[in-house]
Amino acid sequence: MTARMLVDGVASVQVSALDRGLAYGDGLFESIRLIGTIAPLWSRHMRRLAEGCARLYIPAPDPAQLWREALEVSCGMAASVLRITVTRGIGERGYGLPAAPRPTRVVAAFAPPPVAAGVYAQGVRMRVCNIRLAEQPLLAGLKHLNRLEQVLARAEWNDPAIAEGVLLDSHGRVISATMANLFAVVDGELLTPALDRCGVAGVARAEVLAACPQVRVGELTLAALRGAGEVFLSSSVRGILPVRSLDDGSYAPGATTRRLQQHWCDLGFSMEQGE
Amino acid sequence: MTARMLVDGVASVQVSALDRGLAYGDGLFESIRLIGTIAPLWSRHMRRLAEGCARLYIPAPDPAQLWREALEVSCGMAASVLRITVTRGIGERGYGLPAAPRPTRVVAAFAPPPVAAGVYAQGVRMRVCNIRLAEQPLLAGLKHLNRLEQVLARAEWNDPAIAEGVLLDSHGRVISATMANLFAVVDGELLTPALDRCGVAGVARAEVLAACPQVRVGELTLAALRGAGEVFLSSSVRGILPVRSLDDGSYAPGATTRRLQQHWCDLGFSMEQGE
User: What does the record give as the reaction this protein catalyses (chains A, B) (predicted)?
Assistant: First the structure.
């Protein structure tokens, strides 16, 4: 994996081994799709990052500075994925917050992940994961660095034909995919799970909610998901992905999915549809 | 904070910014008390680390190599605390496990944390934290790098007279302190919480369980804790700490606490009692 990277504004590929991001996962990140020098969802990413910093008591970085660094690391790339990581920085040993925190910021640009041919047209295959997400309202919604549940979920399968897994909470409610949010049309109504107890409130999900004011945010059971007429995933990196199957059940990409894919094109993400 | 450190066996104070330990908290750690060149609980630490690696599918480091590195970083220190961090290493972007993982290992030695005068004799003051630990059986017991709950718990208070906080799970059961395990004598029986849904199964706790076969591992309610005759904390770094108060209630250090403090002395931790 090659990446161009700035650590606290300086070209570097390393961070302190005493950083609390490493010691405790004490920080946040954003994965941001760039088309040349355009990041259509930038302001939503910055809003989520600021909210996450506030909830974790980490001084928020300056978005203008992050944008300058984003342009620097992605310079010359026709398309890229930025990863911005913000940690609480180096701290004394122990969990207590440093009296004078100096957050660490890492801005890195990567080549976009490959998306298999036909995925945007026909959709991805999914399975239901065995792991159940733990419910922690104080961290729910945040894109924080404590992601072992997602690592364990993704380790459950290695069939390359399966692109994603459905994550349930400990009560069996559908929450999301491992790296995307999930929407389903159930009895004609567009639904996405509430994320106040677990899950990551994706920036692409926020864009869908803004584009479709009729979406109901609430409880989605696995039975309702299996019986849905249309299912799709939203991802700031991959856009709108139809779901073609869940275990043995299948779906056809429907009108809502196509309308949102078109919305994504209109935002400037047109390259994604053609990959 | 100064520390002597080896990263993958090489003197360094940095790790790759692409390490999954930073990206996802994808790893484990051990905090180990050394008295000169003796680590009385070393084999328990190595056992827990191996178990954690197995549960997270991380190739386990060689304990003999870790021990050589521990002696190197702590050389010349009369007393020290080692932190051994093992991560899944550098990975491709995304949660999927690398096909050929190369774990990262960081071995660092620090001066032991100061312990206030009289603490071992009279005990520490505690409060009950507001945060409730989320229940994730697949991670329960492990000393993994996803520690945001502990960071948020410790951020709840800054009164230096309060040394520790009681953590409850989402059902209100007592689990532990923020950086120690907890034992209580309730109706004459020595009890410590079960840690199969959340919490860290401390190495010092394991030593207490081995030394006191009569300990019952089970459910401890907050009401039972408040009414306990004797409460103490176990920590691989701090040893056996009597608890003198919880919110407005108080305890006197009792015979069990004193017997276990003596056991800690017998193990070779005698310096701790005198700090």
Answer: 4-amino-4-deoxychorismate = 4-aminobenzoate + pyruvate + H(+)
| Domains identified in chain A, total number | 2
Residues B98 and B132 in one domain: no
- Pick from B86, B68, B84, B79: nearest CA to B33: B79
Residue range A270-274: average pLDDT? Answer: 49
Query: What is the H or E stretch that residue B65 is in?
Result: helix B63-73
What pLDDT does residue B273 have? 42
Query: B124 forms bridges with which residues in the sheet?
Result: B243
Q: How many CB pairs under 8 A join A and B?
A: 184
Instruction: Give pLDDT, residue A271.
Output: 47
Residue A246: the pLDDT is 98
Q: How many CB atoms lie within 10 A of CB A170?
A: 17
Among A22, A92, A106, the residue with its CB nearest the CB of B21 is: A22
Test A149 with B136 for CB contact under 8 angstroms. Answer: yes
- Please state, rounded to an integer, the average pLDDT across all residues of chain A: 95
User: pLDDT-based confidence at B2, cuts 50/70/90?
Assistant: low
CATH number of the domain bearing residue B9: 3.30.470.10
Dihedral (Cα; A191, A193, A194, A197), 10-degree rounding: 170
Contacts of B136 in chain A (CB under 8 A): 132-134, 149
> How many angstroms separate the CA of residue A32 from the nearest CA in chain B?
13
Quote the minimal CA–CA distance from A214 to chain B in Å.
Answer: 32
CA distance, residue B95 to nearest chain A CA (Å): 5
Question: Which among B110, B141, B167 is the end of a domain?
Answer: B110
Q: Please answer yes or no on whether B95 and A147 come within 8 Å at the CB atom.
A: yes
This complex has an ipTM of 0.96
Q: Do B22 and A22 touch (CB under 8 A)?
A: yes
Q: Are residues A128 and A55 in the same domain?
A: no
A167 and A62 housed in the same domain: no
pLDDT digits (tens, 9 = 90+) for B159-217: 999 999 999 999 999 999 999 999 999 999 999 999 999 999 999 999 999 999 999 99
The verdict on residue B230 lying in a domain is yes
Query: Can you give the residue range of the structural domain that contains B190?
Result: 119-270
Same domain (yes/no): B259, B169: yes
Whole-angstrom distance, CA of residue B15 vs CA of residue B140: 27
Residues of A in contact with B16 (CB under 8 A): 13-15
CA distance B189 to chain A (A): 31
Q: What is the CATH number of the domain that holds A246?
A: 3.20.10.10
Q: Which residue of A has its CA nearest to B159?
A: A96
- B209 and B74 within one domain: no
Closest residue in B to A140 (Cα) is B134
Q: How far apart are CA B258 and CA B238, in angstroms?
A: 15
With an 8 Å Cβ cutoff, are B13 and A18 in contact? yes
Look at residue B115 in the predicted model and tell me its pLDDT: 83
Whose structure tokens read 């509430």? A194
Interchain proximity B152–A146, CB inside 8 Å:
no
Instruction: Enumerate the β-bridge partners of residue A164.
Output: A126
Domain end position, chosen among A48, A81, A110: A110
- Whether residues A87 and A183 share a domain: the answer is no
* % of chain A beyond a pLDDT of 90: 92
Closest CA to A101 of A111, A117, A109, A90: A90
The residue of chain B with its CA nearest to that of A157 is B96
pLDDT tens digits along B86-137? 999 998 779 999 999 999 999 999 999 888 879 999 999 999 999 999 999 9
Distance from C-alpha of B228 to C-alpha of B246, rounded to nearest angstrom: 11
A189 and A247 both lie in a single domain: yes
